[in-house]
Amino acid sequence: MCGARPSAEREVMSALRRFLDSWLAALGLAIVLVVLFGALFAEFLIPFDPDAQNILMRLKPPMWRGADGVHLMGTDALGRDIFSRLVMGARVSLLVGVASVVISGVVGVTFGLIAGYEDKYVGRVLMAITDIQLAIPFLVLALAVAAVVGPSLWNIIVILGLTNWVQYARVVRAECLSLREREFIQAAHTMGIGVGAILVRHLLPNVMSSVIVISSLLVAKMILFESSLSFLGLGVPPTTPTWGTMIADGRNYISHAGWIATFPGLAIFVTVVGINLIGDRLRDMLDPRLRQMEG
Length: 295
What we know:
By secondary structure, the chain is mostly helical.
């Protein structure tokens, strides 16, 4: 046991060094860590209450444009501090992105494992359901459901989670169809090991690399979708600061107070780019063909 821990630590450190060999991946990780730090410690970083309104301070430009020197990124049409709302919005965006991906991953991986191992009646029914959902434009489906259930943080998480599991299901099923013919799966089946144990102990670990890559890229996609729905008024309630809501608040003032929409737009752009850089590097590290090319 004592020798196993140093070995595991060496493997983790080796993987981390390989990850950081790419300066783009290091940049993406730095971006995500900054956003995560802001989201976790928002209460200690924001100088003002993000919901506090002060009409006397409305539409104040950022500090470097000769404002009063109090509001770093200026204020919106209701006198609310842009920087404070931006930092609090990071918490909502990351929560929606991670939580919806967890839901998608659990549902999609479960369906993919079952459909890949039991490629008969149950598997074909699950894949038929997958094909039907793929035929429906995601944004249209999400808009329709959000309009029915109403704006809510947890509603939007569930909606995004239950409308994006198909990517996991198709990839995991494709890998399971190949893995189930391998000798170790046949041996486990011959020894009388139950289907559930085979799926969890033998198939799931072998598809986790693909699941990790899909998840890392899907988080960025979920942040974009949440911002789109919030921009349209179908995401989280308007009283909750989110990047999409902030852009929607600033669209009517873009000509003379462009900072209201610019800063949340930049936050979405930079965060999504950072997450995608991490996802690309993880794909390069976990794909055996790309690993051979690196070597």
